[in-house]
Amino acid sequence: MKERILITGGAGFIGSNLAAALLKRPNTDVVIADDFSSGDWRNLIDVDCEVRAVFCDDTQLLQDIANGHFSAIYHEAAITDTTVMDQKLMMNVNTDAFAALLEASAQSGTRVIYASSAGTYGNSPAPNCIGSGEEPENIYGFSKLAMDRIAARWYDKHPSSIIGLRYFNVYGPGEHHKNERDGTKTASMMLQWYQCIQAGNPIKAFEHGEQRRDFVYIGDVIGANLAALESSRSGVCNVGSGKARSYNDIINNLNRTLSIQHPVEFIHNPFPFFQDHTEADLTETSALLHWQPQWSLEQGMDDYIKLLEKGHRGPLETA
User: Fold this and answer.
1) How big is the chain by its Cα radius of gyration, in Å?
2) Which domain holds residue 136?
3) pLDDT digit string (tens) for 299-311?
């Protein structure tokens, strides 16, 4: 009998990549629930699964979860734009809906794997460790920390495991739509700067490009999600490369891969909550998921740019 796995936010960047990967597993069906407020139908053109155009706390969807219609739930639905400052909206969409989903899943004993964020750490000193330095700088980061706290309250009374994955800076195929909605640009700097190069515009980077982040390729993010299906206990863990790299490293890799030397314009950073240094401590990740990242920044960018040069815009598994 086939496993039936639900992905909320399945038309988004990570959700669509996850759907494409799961469909390659034997005896697996995927159901996507997405209200298409930020996801993109084009991510699903080559992903053959059931798609429901509903919000993740839709009454019928919650009832289906409570009735045990799914063998596992990946909860990716969220407001992911960190510049949204509407506190009530952020908490309603990210935190309250998650609480309703957890309550429904507890009735059926369905495993839940959900998207948390490195935004929970704010600007606390790196490396970022689970249970330490959880000091978010904006409402987005707080909404994710609140999700982790809600999940922890369910650990002992939920019949199955609940796994929170704190994503660091994810990049890769399937994120084009993040630059195409309402004039906002929330895709990775890899894509944003690649598009600047293609348009003949200078790369604009915050002064002076030495900010360091943990950039993780979508292939590794999917690997961690698949590993979470096998975890025997609940918990939250970091999903990153485990190594911080500078924005200048991204620029240098773009120039190297494209065999160019593109001009850079350094600008003032207007965001007081901007994280200057993130780096995932993977100790708990290894213990909980028995997983380690496989892609270096150079390898991930080489693979991504090769796909961009071919015009590919869908999930990695559909390339």
Assistant:
1) 19
2) 3-171+216-242+275-294
3) 999 999 999 999 9
The candidate with the shortest Cα–Cα distance to 13, out of 211, 200, 190, is 190
Secondary structure E strands in 16-110: 28-33, 50-52, 72-75
Of 32 and 180, more confident: 32
Six token digits for residue 236: 């939250």
Q: Is pLDDT at 185 greater than 90 in this prediction?
A: no
Active site residues: 140, 178
pLDDT at 180: 85
Residue 84 placed within a domain: yes
Q: 3-class DSSP state for residue 235?
A: strand
- DSSP structural state of residue 95: I
Amino acid at 76: E
Q: Number of structural domains, the chain? A: 1
**Vertex 234, ends 229 and 235: CA angle to 5°?**
105
As given in the structure block, the two tokens for residue 91 are 């908490």
Q: In this predicted model, what pLDDT tens digit does every residue of 139-158 receive, in sequence order?
A: 999 999 999 999 999 999 99
102: Cα within 13 Å, side-chain hemisphere: 25
Cα separation, 221 vs 238, whole angstroms: 10
Q: What percent of the chain has pLDDT over 90?
A: 93
131 falls within a domain: yes
Q: Are the C-beta atoms of 257 and 250 separated by less than 8 Å? A: no
Burial of 20 (0-12, 13-18, 19+ CB in 10 A): buried
The pLDDT value given to residue 273? 81
Residue 310 lies inside a defined structural domain of this protein: no
48 domain-assigned: yes
pLDDT for 183 equals 64
CATH number at residue 149: 3.40.50.720
pLDDT at 272: 86
82 phi and psi, to 5 degrees? -75, -5
